[in-house]
């Protein structure tokens, strides 16, 4: 079944650790996105990609980095986590095209940095 | 750049009451989408509106797209406890990426 997967679901780590949040989709979508969301709050776009080897920063400045080596995979990396990075990170994908940006979201990774 | 304003930020209703959330864009949109996020969950696509003045219904939910394609609304008739969550609109202008509103958090008192 076509879907979008995020791992881990929950992550608690100490300050200064390097982490990678995984996101994979089986729908063959070209466009993928990372959003940051505090509980019950608005969605902030932090990174997006329109295809392999294409990545762009979003509207909210983030210290994280992303890569897009394969269509289905869009991992997000924090080189040195800090308590201010505590948040929920949502990955999404879309088939794209004019007036067709319907997003499919993963279940999210809840990150807590101590 | 494009901005999408959504009101109200919070809405608390008694079960059975109606609920409406409104979305306004600073620019003309090519389409608008609505998403629902249950508490502890992730946003789930509800619907997309493309045509000026379009009205779509999903059971007790009615979605409207304004004539000028700059505003939209979601109306829920006779709310139920299962309607609890945050409703987000997201507008797309031309070939630009989606811009989300801040969401309306709906709570329903049984």
Quaternary class: heterodimer
Strand content of chain A: over 45%
Radius of gyration of chain A: 13 Å
What is the share of helical residues of chain A? Answer: under 10%
Annotation field: number of helices of chain A: 0
Number of helices of chain B: 0
- Major beta sheet of chain A, specifics? 7 strands, mixed
Order of helices and strands of chain B: EEEEEEEEEEE
**Overall geometry of chain A:** globular
Kindly state the percentage of residues in helix of chain B.
Answer: under 10%
Strand-and-helix sequence of chain A, N→C?
Answer: EEEEEEEEEEE
Distance between the termini of chain B: 41 Å
What would you say this structure looks like, in words?
The complex is a heterodimer of chains A (114) and B (110). By secondary structure, chain A is mainly beta. Chain A contains no helices and eleven strands. Chain A has strands at 4-7, 10-13, 19-25, 31-37, 44-51, 54-57, 65-66, 76-78, 87-94, 104-105, 109-113. In chain A, the strands form two sheets. In chain A, strands 2, 4, 5, 6, 9, 10 and 11 form a seven-stranded mixed beta sheet that branches. The mean pLDDT of chain A is 92. With 110 residues, chain B is mainly beta. Chain B has strands at 4-7, 10-14, 19-25, 31-37, 44-49, 55-58, 61-65, 71-76, 85-92, 99-100, 104-109. In chain B, strands 2, 4, 5, 9, 10 and 11 form a six-stranded mixed beta sheet that branches. Chain B is globular and about 40 Å long. The mean pLDDT of chain B is 95. The interface between A and B is medium-sized, with 18 and 25 residues.
């Amino acid at each position: 079944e076509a879907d979008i997967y995020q791992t881990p679901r929950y992550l608690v780590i100490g300050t200064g650790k390097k982490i990678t949040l995984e996101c994979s989709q089986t729908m063959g979508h070209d466009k993928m996105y990372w959003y940051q969301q505090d509980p019950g709050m608005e969605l902030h776009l932090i990174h997006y990609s329109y295809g392999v080897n294409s990545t762009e920063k979003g509207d909210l400045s983030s210290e994280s980095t992303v890569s897009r080596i394969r269509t289905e995979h869009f991992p997000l990396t924090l080189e040195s986590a800090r308590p201010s990075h505590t948040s929920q990170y949502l990955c999404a994908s879309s088939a794209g095209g004019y007036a067709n940006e319907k997003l499919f979201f993963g279940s999210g990774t809840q990150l807590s940095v101590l | 750049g494009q901005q999408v304003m959504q009101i109200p930020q919070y809405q608390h209703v008694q079960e059975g009451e109606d609920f409406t959330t409104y979305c306004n864009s600073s620019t003309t949109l090519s389409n608008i989408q609505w998403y629902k996020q249950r508490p502890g969950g992730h946003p789930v696509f509800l619907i997309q509106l493309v045509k000026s003045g379009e009205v779509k219904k999903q059971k007790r939910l009615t979605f409207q797209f304004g004539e000028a394609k700059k505003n939209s609304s979601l109306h829920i008739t006779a709310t139920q406890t299962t309607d609890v969550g945050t409703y987000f609109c997201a507008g797309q202008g031309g070939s630009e990426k989606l811009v989300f509103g801040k969401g309306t958090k709906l709570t329903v008192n049984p």
